[in-house]
Fold each of these.
Amino acid sequence: MTAQDIARTYLETGKLDALPDGHFIGGRTTPASNRKMESFDPGRSEAFAEFSLADDSDMDRAISEAEKAAKSWRQVAPSERCRILNNAARVLRDNADRLSVIEVVDSGKTLAEAAGDVQSSARLFEYYAGAADKLDGRSVNLGPGYTAFTVREPVGVTGHIIPWNYPTSTFARGVAPALAAGCSVVAKPAETTPFTALVMAELLVEAGVPEGLVNVVTGLGAEVGAKMAHDPRIKQLTFTGSVTTGVSVAQMAAPNVTRLTLELGGKSPLIAFEDADPEKVADGAYWAIFSNSGQICSAGSRLILHKAIRDDVLAILKERASAIRTAHGLTAPDMGAVNSELHLSRIKAHVDA
C-alpha cells in the first residue's frame, strides 16, 4: 500500500494496522505489561493506540540483552557491519510509506515532512555504513626502540533518549553510528511518539541486524529514562531535549562517568542587514520558524532586522503566515498540529506574554 492508501484508511477508521504491542527486546516484541498509556494523534486530539509503560525490570532486561549482543557484534568485521547497515537503509526505504504515516499520526507533522525524515534516516544508515570500515587508530613516533599505536574500540552498550519532534531521524542519528562502531543500543522514545522507534527496530532485525543489538523500551522519562541514565552498564548516553532535563540526565550519569552527548534547547536569531533582499529574508525566516510547526531546537525564533527593511520584511511575512493552511498532517496542509496539549499550552504562554 502507498502512503496515500494507508492515510486514507486511517482517516476513515482511526486505526493503524500492525502497530507493535510491547517493547522490543532481544530481537522481538515482548508482551506488554499491565501498565499502558494512550498514544494521541495530535491532528485529531484522539487516542489511536496504546503502548506499554516499562518498569525497571523491562529496562534491566533490555540492557542485559544489549550487553550480550555487544560481545559478539564487536568481533564482526567492519566490512560486514557496512553491508548490514546498507541493507538497513534499503529496508527502511522499502517501508518508507508505512513509517511516514505512523510518524504523522504519532507526532502531528505533515506527511511531506515525515517522508523527508524517513528518507534522511535511511541516508544516515548509508552514511555510517561507509564509516564502519574507516574507524582506525594511529601510530605514534616515540623514537628509536619504541613501537606505539592507538586502537579505537567499541564502548559497549549505548543508551539513547529520543525527543518527540524528530523521533525517526533522531533514532537513526544515534543508532546508525553506534552500530557502525561495533556497539549495541537501548533506546527510549518520547512518551508522545513511541511507535516509529519500535517499528524501525523490527525492520533492522529484518535487514540482518543481529537480535538483541537494538532494543527499544517505551515509558515515562522520569521512570525508565532515569533508570537508563543511572545504570553503570550504559557506557555512552545521548539525550536530546530541554536544558533542565539535560542537566538532570548529566547528574544521574556522572557517578558512573558515563560518556554523554547532549543536544539541549536553542534560540536561533536570524539577522538581516540593510542591503538584504526583503523577499529572501522573509522566505528564509518563514521556513526557519514554520517548518515542523516551529518545533525545532534551531528554529529561527528571533528575527533581528535593520530598520531600513523592517517594514517590508514583516509585511511579506504577515501575508505568508496569514495564508498558512493548518489541518491534519495526512491531508496535505501547509502545517500540521503541534505535538501535544502541553506543548500547545507553552506556545500560548509565549503569545500571551
Note: The longest helix spans residues 111-131.
Amino acid sequence: MTERHPPRVVPLVDQRSSSLTTPAAAFSPETRLAANGLITDKRQRALRDLRISVTDRCNFRCNYCMPKEIFDKDYAYLPHSALLSFEEITRMARVFVAHGVQKIRLTGGEPLLRKNIEALIEQLSALRTLDGQPLDLTLTTNGSLLARKARALKAAGLQRVTVSLDGLDDAVFRSMNDVDFPVSDVLAGIEAAREAGLGPIKINMVVKRGTNEHEILPMARRFKDTGIVLRFIEYMDVGATNGWRMNEVMPSAEVVQLIHAELPLVQLDPSSPGETAERWGYANAAGQHDKTAGEVGVISSVTQAFCGDCNRARLSTEGKLFLCLFASQGYDLRALVRNNPSDVDLTSAVAHIWQGRTDSYSELRSAMAPDTGLGQRRVEMSYIGG
C-alpha cells in the first residue's frame, strides 16, 4: 500500500527580510574587544571557519535549494549595489582571520557566476593566519562553469574545490538540477579541476529518499581509487522553500551500511576539530584503511547533531552575518562597514556577536518529533550557502 502524505506546501518568503536582521552596531557596546584569536561563544566554541556567499544567483534549480516555484523568471535578485564589494569582503575576512579563522569557503548561489571572482580570490589568498600560514581557501560549486574557469581559479590562489553532484545517471541529474544540465559537463569540470591542481577535490551528494538513493553505490564505485573524497549529505530542513519532510531523509547510517556491504569500510578519525563529516576509509583485505583507495564521508545534518563543536560563521552576499546554517537571526555587517568604522570598532563588533552565540538548532530539533520545526522562520541555504 502506498503511503500517503499531505500536500506539500511551499511558503513564499523573502529570506532577505529585515525581520531576520539585527543591526551589527547594536553589538558594539562601549567595551572594546581586541582580536587575539581566542574568542569563544557561550558554549566555548572557537571561531575557525568563515563561509562567504558571493552571489544569490544560481543557474541550477535544485528542488532542495532553489526550487522553480520560488526562484522563477520573476524572482527579484539582489541589485549589484546591495552586494558586498570585493574590497568589503576582504576587509571583513581580515577581521575574522584576526579572530582565529583559518579556513574561508566561497559559496553562493553559484559563486562562479560572480563576475571577476578571480580578483576576490587573489585578494583573499594574500591573507595569512595568526601563525603566518596561508588560509585554507576553497570554493563550493555546482561544476557547470568549472571546466572553463579551473586554471584561472588556481592561478588566482584558490587551493581546492568542492563540487555538488547528486548522481551519475544523466536523467536523474537533469531532473534534480531542473534545468536539463548534463552530468557529463560537471564531470568534465571535475577533471579540469584535477588537472589544474585544485585538490584534494571533494564531491557532495545530497541524498533524498525516493529520488536518488539508487545513485549511492554508482557514485562510490566511480570515485573510489581516484583521490576524490565523496561525501553523502542528509537532505536538510534548511529554510522554508524546499518543502522538507523527514520521510525523505535517508540516514547516514543506512548509506554507510549500503556501501559497506559491497565496498568494505573502516571508520577514520576526524580530520580537524569541528569537522562535520564522519570519515570512512575503504578497507583492504586485512580490514585496514587502504589509503590508495581513498575514503568517503557522511554528513548527518538531520540524524546526528554536531552543534557541540561547530566553529563556523556565514556571511551572506549582502553582508549579513549568520551564526548557524539554520539561523533565524542575522547581523547586518554591511551597514556597519559602509558607515566607515575603524578597524578597532569592526573587530570589536564581530567579537561581541560571536561571544553572544548560543546556536544549537540541530540539537534542539533532534529532541522533537519528526516533521516538526522549532516554529522559527529560518534563512534559506541558497542565500548563505551550505
Note: The CA atoms of residues 95 and 324 lie 19 Å apart.
